[in-house]
Design a protein that fits this description.
Helix 6 links the parallel strand 6 and strand 7. The chain is globular. Strands 2-1-3-10-4 form a 5-stranded mixed beta sheet, sandwiched between helices. It has a 5-stranded mixed beta sheet with strand order 7-6-8-5-9, sandwiched between helices. By secondary structure, the chain is α/β, with parallel strands linked by helices. The chain has 14 helices and 10 strands. It has 2 domains: about 200 residues, Periplasmic binding protein-like II (D-Maltodextrin-Binding Protein, domain 2, 3-Layer(aba) Sandwich); about 100 residues, D-Maltodextrin-Binding Protein, domain 2, CATH 3.40.190.10.
Amino acid sequence: MKNTLGHFLLSIAVFLLFSLSFVPHGAWAADKLTGFYASQAISNSMPWIAQEIGLFRKYDLDFQLIYITTSQLVTAVMLRGDGEVGLTGGAAFVRAFVQGATDFVIIGGVKNVLTHSILAGPEIKKTEDLKGKKIGVSRIGSNPHYFTIQALRRFGLDPGRDNITFIQTGEASGTLAALVKGGVHAGTLTAPADASAIAQGFHYVVYGPDLRIPYANTFFATRRSVIMKRSHVVGQFMRVMAEAAKLMHTNKDLTYKVLARHYRVEDRRILDAAYNPEIKVLEPKLDIRHEGLQAILDEVSQTDPRAGKVKPQDFVDRRYLDEMQKDGFFEKLWAGDRSY
């Protein structure tokens, strides 16, 4: 009887071991993670690339990516405790921190300058022609709104003094639609929407990439409480994004394949016009530039004096970037490519 029971238990053990060997790696061990992003811009495409080639599975992550139309809304849902990571940027996040949401923290940078542009039809030939006109931006307080104010200032214009009105249009597609239908005289867009506008006969009144206005346009954010509880998982996510960033910079065919699907654009000329100027200002190794964050603090301080007491390092945590540097991850990832 004992031998029979022993053979039975041994058979079960062998069966289980044999069965488990055929379970896909990570199928039962994947860590769930939810992330938000606020723009369909190329600077936000790294999660798309990671999904395309299975990088999340490689790092045992079951990642859910949710699109929310503005950085203000991403900040709001994260402030509420929803999700763990955000690919966001701009003043909304910094303003929330200044107002007391000190659980927020930036863990990686993507884009530290603004590359929006102001486009218009043939009736507006130069920046002076924008006086008394309506300019479409996604939201008041958004990155396009901030860029437009800064760009106008550089050309000696002041929205209040020069009677320039900002019209909220929602997503970039809404700005382009308002421009086409004549609901606004000009619109502030970034790639690839600006390339689409050019293809429809509009032109640059202000070409933003040439201005290189410092601004923390796009970054990875989380909450300190999440890091305390799930530091390893957040670290794995950052390694996924680091690999995706490398591919975005070095594998144009893969990147275009992903962008074409999300933008529903097959014309390579439009993809080139969107990708080529943008990739030049994106951080290949997800570095965080304090001057871009300081620019936001300076802007916020005009309406909230508390921002003057906050320094960029107060809401930056470089632990994951430092780990990838110290343990040779970046060196191995970029081996053979000395251009970055």
